[in-house]
Structures are given as structure tokens and as C-alpha cells.
Design a protein that fits this description.
Length: 270
């Protein structure tokens, strides 16, 4: 009996194609699954990739844009009008504000302010009582009018009969700072110049308060100081209680370019 040789089974084009397809599906499923896992970490099944969710969340809740940053307006010194504020140098960050009760009044109040570059002006003292000239205030001061000048003036120099109480201002001590006689209400003037700060009205800055040079002329007066109060009106200066003068001298700092803003309440609101 003869035996026929077994012929090898030939795989036709269809079978080969199906096998190739199966291999491809098996091999790519792992790669595809790995890619999907990396892209969809933290996502809902079949949902948006985590990186897309982060990008979507940057606009805020419900797709709303982030709120605009708030702008803080710097504080101004209260009760000063635009014209008075305009006289204060942008470089000044310390201001002694002297507010007279009325145009013809000799009583006043003083508050010291400092300016923060971001938040603006804020008070750094209590309200201090003060006196000014016996006839009140004027915006056209002249020698002998017995009124205090209205305006904004630099404070650069100090002095007195007594030793400096720790001020940073240049301080000239000497016996020439002597006050004698009586004031307008019969009070003794002795000790009024124990501590003084020169107000730069009609004077040369950088000199002792005793320098009598008058750049605007003698008729425009001068010698206007902050000094120790003697219990009554002055001839043109502004006076503070002794302990307040010492406190003020310790506060004033040339690096802060201190100024005095002075006048009656109505005038300062201009």
C-alpha cells in the first residue's frame, strides 16, 4: 500500500491577515493602555486629562476669570485742601501740622504725621495744644504785624539754651537763646527758648536759628520758631508745652525732609 506524503498546510492570504491583525491588536493594546493611563491620571473614566483640568481651573470657578487686584489709595493728611497739599514736597515724609482755631485766634493744635510710600500719611503723635501769634494768622506776613505766617515751610535746624534732647537735627546750644520779660497776658517768658526749631520762613536753611539773614528783606519779618510754650500768645512763633517740644525734637529726622504745615483751619482747607 503506498502512502501519500503529507503536504504542509498553506496559510492563505486571509488567515495570514487575520493573524497579523491579532498580533497588532495584542501588541498595541499595552502601549495604548500605558499612554491612556499617563494622560488621564486624575481624570474621570474616559474623561478630560488632568493637565487639561488644571488649565481649565486657572480661570476660576465655573470658567470665570480671576478677580482683578485691588488698588489701595494712599491716605492724605486730613483737613488739608489741594492747594495746601500741593505745597508739601514729594520728598517730605514728615509733617508737623499746626491748625489754628480761627483766623484771628492765638490758640492752635499740633499733630505730627509721617508718610509711608504705600499707605500714605498717618499720625504718629497725639493732638498737642499750642499757641500762635496774638493776632492770629496771615498769608502776607510782615515785621511787627503780630501774626503767624500761613504756609508750608521746611524744618532743618534746631537749638536752645539747654542741651539737645537727642534730636537728629543740627542743634546749636548757647546762652544767646535767652528769653526775658513778660508775655501778652503777663506771663513770664523765661525758658521759652530752652528748645527751639527754626521754621524756614525768610531765613537761610542750614544755619543756626540765631542767624538773622532775611532773604526776603527785613520788612517780611523772620525769626519764626517752634519753641517752648510760656502760657500765652506769641509774636509770630508757634509754642508747644516743654515735654512736647522735647518729644518733637526727638522725632524730627532730616532724612525724612520734615516740614511744618501751619495756618488757621479755614486757610489750610484751600
Amino acid at each position: 500500500m503506498s502512502v501519500r506524503p503529507v503536504r504542509p498546510v498553506r496559510r492563505g492570504p486571509l488567515i495570514a491577515a487575520l493573524l497579523a491583525t491579532g498580533l497588532l491588536l495584542t501588541g498595541c493594546s499595552g502601549l495604548t493602555g500605558t499612554t491612556d493611563h499617563a494622560d488621564n491620571v486624575g481624570s474621570a473614566p474616559g474623561g478630560t486629562a488632568a493637565k487639561d483640568k488644571v488649565a481649565a481651573g486657572a480661570t476660576g470657578a465655573a470658567g470665570q476669570p480671576a478677580p482683578e487686584p485691588q488698588i489701595v489709595e494712599p491716605e492724605e493728611i486730613p483737613d488739608l485742601g489741594p492747594a495746601t497739599r500741593a505745597e508739601i514736597s514729594p520728598q517730605a515724609s514728615q509733617a508737623v501740622v499746626v491748625t489754628g482755631t480761627a483766623r484771628d485766634s492765638s490758640t492752635a493744635s499740633v499733630v505730627v504725621y509721617e508718610r509711608d510710600p504705600v499707605t500714605g500719611w498717618h499720625a504718629v503723635s497725639d493732638v498737642w495744644p499750642a499757641h500762635n501769634a496774638v493776632r492770629g494768622w496771615t498769608d502776607d506776613h510782615f515785621q511787627g504785624d503780630l501774626r503767624s505766617p500761613i504756609g508750608v515751610f521746611d524744618l532743618t535746624d534746631a537749638g536752645g539754651k539747654l542741651p539737645a534732647p537727642g534730636t537728629k537735627l543740627p542743634y546749636d546750644r548757647g546762652s544767646a537763646f535767652e528769653a526775658s520779660g513778660d508775655g501778652f497776658e503777663g506771663e513770664a517768658l523765661a525758658g521759652s527758648f530752652d528748645y527751639v526749631v527754626a521754621i524756614n520762613y525768610n531765613r537761610l536753611p542750614g544755619t543756626t536759628p540765631l542767624d538773622w539773614t532775611r532773604p526776603l528783606g527785613e520788612n517780611k519779618g523772620g525769626g519764626i520758631w517752634l519753641h517752648v510754650d510760656h502760657g500765652g500768645p506769641t509774636q509770630g512763633c508757634v509754642s508747644l508745652p516743654r515735654r512736647r517740644m522735647k518729644e518733637l525734637l526727638r522725632m524730627l529726622d532730616p532724612a525724612k525732609r520734615p516740614v511744618v504745615v501751619m495756618g488757621d483751619a479755614d486757610s489750610l482747607t484751600d
